[in-house]
Amino acid sequence: MNKTLRDQVMNLPAQERAELAQELWDSVHPPGSALPGDIVVLTQEQMAELDRRLEEYKQHPERAEPWEVVRKRLWARFDK
Known about the structure:
- Helix content is 61%, strand content 0%.
- The chain is an all-alpha fold.
- The chain has two domains: 1-35; 41-80, no CATH class.
- It is extended and about 45 Å long.
- The two termini are 29 Å apart.
- The model has no long low-confidence stretch (mean pLDDT 86).
């Protein structure tokens, strides 16, 4: 990748970088398109777990952790 272009992109505000990332991803994998092996079908158990977690969040939103906190904890596992 062109270093100058990369540096320019990295200097954009976070929101603009996120928008650009989405546009780039959509150009590779357009919304609604399916690549071979790309279709994900959830099991009944997985759907039930997602429903359970959503309900738990609705009942106790104060127990939720911001994504930034969760991401930091997950990445810390790989920094060892």
